[in-house]
Amino acid sequence: MKKDLRATWPQALFTFFGPLALVIGVRWLIIEPFVVPSGSMIPTLLIHDHIIANKMVYGIHVPFSKKWILHWSNPKRGDIAVFRYPETPEVYFVKRIVALPGDELQLDHGILSVNGQRQELQPVERPSDADDRFEYFKESGHLVRYLDHEIASYASVKVPQGMYFAMGDNRDQSSDSRVWGFVPEENFVGSVQRVWLACEKTLPSASFLCDPSTIRWNRLLLGVR
Questions:
Q1: Burial, 224: exposed, middle or buried (Cβ in 10 Å; 0-12, 13-18, 19+)?
Q2: Looking at the whole model, is its pTM more than 0.90?
Q3: Residue 37 DSSP class
Q4: N or C: which end of the chain has fewer CB within 10 A?
Q5: Cis bond upstream, residue 33 (ω within 30)
Q6: What span, in angstroms and rounded, lies between the C-alpha atoms of 192 and 91?
């Protein structure tokens, strides 16, 4: 007797496309992985840190678009956020949000002020593996790094409605809102709370994959703030 294969075709299609649809759905709606390409967020995030952006924290976008389907929350001061680079939306940046729409911001000799409230710098001990050229400080509960905080200044500016001001924690070596301007609200992808994998180098043939021999074991599943 010949076996009736008609009933097996839907099963085969579901077996093939089901997991693919699940992965695409999770990446679109819930979380999306990214690899940190630069040192602009040192010491919080290091080069080749593999991070996960929580996409549910702000809302849901139309796939492959900046338009919102649902939008229920806005970025907050202190969020480490992934967003589309305003000048080239196909490129993603990760920075810290330091000022919200309507805020007045100023940087004076390394001291960040928002709406007249100074974010005082508290000196901390330099990490054992850190470059001796840099100074490390705690600012509002997170670490920042300067080559020389005394010369770091930025004129007072008011953030327009619908816009945000983003800065890197590596203050003297970050291209951020001080250089290219504000981040539109619709550009935000999600917030970052954790490093799930980290390494010194990535594979030459695939820059998004860690070289297993250079994994930073002390940063696996590391929470960041």
A1: middle
A2: no
A3: -
A4: N
A5: no
A6: 17
17-32 as b/e: b if 16+ CB within 10 A: eeeeeeeeeeeeeeeb
Tell me which residues are annotated as active site: 40, 95
Q: Give the C-alpha separation, 26 to 72, whole Å.
A: 18
More reliable by pLDDT, 7 or 120: 120
| Nearest in space to 100 (alpha carbons), one of 126, 123, 74, 80 | 74
pLDDT tens sequence across 74-117:
999 999 999 999 999 999 999 999 999 999 999 999 999 999 99
What is the distance between the alpha carbons of residues 62 and 19, in angstroms, rounded to a whole number?
A: 21
Residue type, position 148, single letter: D
Closest CA to 133 of 121, 124, 144, 146: 146
**Three-class secondary structure of residue 98 per DSSP:** strand
Q: How far is CA 151 from CA 92, 108, 111, 120, 194, in A?
A: 29, 8, 10, 16, 32
Displacement of CA 110 from its chain's centroid (Å): 22
Using the predicted structure, report yes or no on whether residue 173 has a pLDDT greater than 80: yes
d(CA 66, CA 89): 9
**Strand 122-123 versus strand 222-223 pairing type:** unpaired
H or E stretch including 70? strand 68-71
